Hints:
Helix content is 18%, strand content 36%. It is of the alpha+beta class. The protein has one domain: Cyclic Phosphodiesterase, Chain: A, CATH 3.90.1140.10.
Amino acid sequence: MRADTLHLTLAFLGDVAGEDLSRLIEIAMRIKFQPFELQLDRIGYWKHNAIVWAGTAQVPPALTALAESLADALRAAGFRLEERSFKPHITLVRKFSGVPVAALQPPLHWQVDRFRLVISRPDRHGARYELVGEWPAPPITGGE
């Protein structure tokens, strides 16, 4: 995968009509979440589609909450999502033929403080992503 295509998918929508983009933006603007650190410490391989991916042994609760709140809001608005359970991963290699390593050493630490809505446009190199919007976590305010 090219560096500019690396991502972790929170919700996969497939083909979406252009007129639905404004609805997606409205939904994304209402999502609140806490920033978190994602530790990528595993390398995995899905033989059925020849994909090598990076993942985590411990999914941060804030990531699960973000993915669930986004999925709930999308479904409530009538969008159809994949029915399989959320398995956070970053696709590293497609069409892999070989033996992948089993661990990522040292682990990579990713500070997550925003999420994005992107459109995937197929091209001769695989896919090109167009940024539609980006939403940061609300600032953390100190209590007294």
